[in-house]
Amino acid sequence: MLRPFKYQSILEHGVLLARALTTASAGTAPKEIQKHDKPGQLNDQDFDALRRRRKTEWKRKQGGQSFLDNLIVNIRGGTGGDGCAAFHREKFKPFGPPSGGNGGRGGDVYILPTPHLTTLSTIPKRIRGEPGGNGQGTWQNGRNGSPLIIRVPLGTVVRELPRDDPRRAKDEWEAEEESMEGLTPSEKRDKMRDNRWVHYPRYSEANVQRDTFKDAEAALYKQERERRLARRKRALQEPIYLDLDKEENIERAIDAPLGIKQHEPTGHLIASGGLGGLGNPHFTSPLNRSPKFATRGHEGERITLSLELKLLADVGLVGMPNAGKSTLLRALTGGRAKSEVAGYAFTTLNPVVGVVRVADDGKFEGGISENLVHDETWVEEKHEREKMESGEYAQALTRNQIVNKENLEETPRPLDGSLRAGHHFDLVETFRFTIADNPGLISRASENVGLGHSFLRSMERSLALVYVVDFSGPAPWDELHVLREELEKYQPGMSTKARMVIANKADLLGGNGDPAQVEEAKSKLRRLEKYVQTEMVIHHSNTDASSDIFLDVVATSAKFSQNLPKVVSLMRTYVERAREHLV
């Protein structure tokens, strides 16, 4: 089917974007675009490929907005409620005592790590705590603002920006000074008083002339100076730094009385709410029996934080673009990891984390299905659409029907290769680890070229790194050299976490079993192994050679799930050793 003529301008623009992207990454234009240079001559397959390339180019320019691993957040605690200037009135008591209530305290802002999030994209850039309620007559105090909890993913590092950082927002006193620029001294004084005092109706001019008000105003400014100095001293000496790599749990005491509600964890306090204003009874004195003024609530603490997410994956995949990392992740997880797979570079723009579950006998969830082929995403989606349109799923059982049918069976399900993925694998699972598919690494990525730091940060906390190279390429050893150099340029010593080299796409070598081509593939694998054993050795000591680590080399075909049990077994060994050192 050919696309109609009305897509002409869209297709022309898309062809230009696709050519620019592929020329920058691979040096040549894709074959399907070279075949159809005229608008309106693209079939469905080429149109889908073109659409995916345009999406990739857009996301690359946007920096991966669906996944955020660093964010600047301006946070403000809740403003305190205003105090009330009122007098008690009731029958036969026309002139009662001062009865204004105090304002409620502003809500505090907390930050709490949670395992249910994987990105910072759900966190707004401006956060404000709930304000406190205003005081009312008859001694009614305002309610306190509820605390606000900011939930962030595990592995988030929180840093407070220093005062000299241009990205830092102004605090409440600096913001007030900025708002009064250009005013005369008398206008500044009046505005500062309006921001701090509440007057009884028609008594504002009389209050400012009384000595009791002037004394109260001097005491208020003195408290403000002390609070401002204490805030700056804390920011200089003890700036906020939190490494949220563990989930917070509150254990209920064994001897706790019954019927007491268990409090949920609130996390770490990062911005305190402002104090509530004082009602006019607070200013009663022998010299002033009926004060007709009250204070407004204080503004909440303002702070600017830098949030940086470092994924807590056990194993990180490192490779050049289009090396087959996404296909490998899908094969290891049995297709449960929803990563984009396509035949062009920069398909993966955001880190994707999958879980590999292993049984006691070494079988893993992704390897229990036989003859499973992990093709490109658009091909699998096309097959699914064809099955749905043909009515193949019309008589298929639902999940609940399948479970009910299995529960009615008299014989239990055998724990062998016939076991299916999903909740059936829970019966035999004994070990699990997480693996991260990171975007492709290109030369000069440490200098923030390409996707640069946006994904190198996500690999800092991986317990082990695995190089993935395209074995069908002309020189996979050159890819290893570039990968190691870029890791070292970004963070010295980061390449020492590498434990294995996966020579992916080995199915493309050897032809149809021709002896000469098979021998050529074996010779190429031996050369890669020799390069790894000589050039990729990890030296932990300059004098003790016994502590050197030699990387394992495994040739695989992720598309056809070939030689993956060996990969899973080695990865499990790396993770177990790394976890032992962490304990």
UniProtKB/TrEMBL annotation:
Cellular component aspect of the GO annotation: mitochondrion
GO molecular function terms listed in the Swiss-Prot or TrEMBL record: GTP binding; GTPase activity
Occurrences of domain OBG-type G (ranges): 313-576
Location of region: Disordered: 28-48, 124-146, 163-188
Pfam families reported in the protein's UniProt record: GTP1_OBG, MMR_HSR1
GO biological process: ribosome biogenesis
Basic and acidic residues bias: start-end ranges: 163-172
PROSITE patterns recorded: G_OBG, OBG
Keywords of the record: GTP-binding, Nucleotide-binding
Obg domain residues: 65-312
Keyword Acetylation: no
Protein's name in the database: GTPase
Source organism per UniProt: Collybia nuda
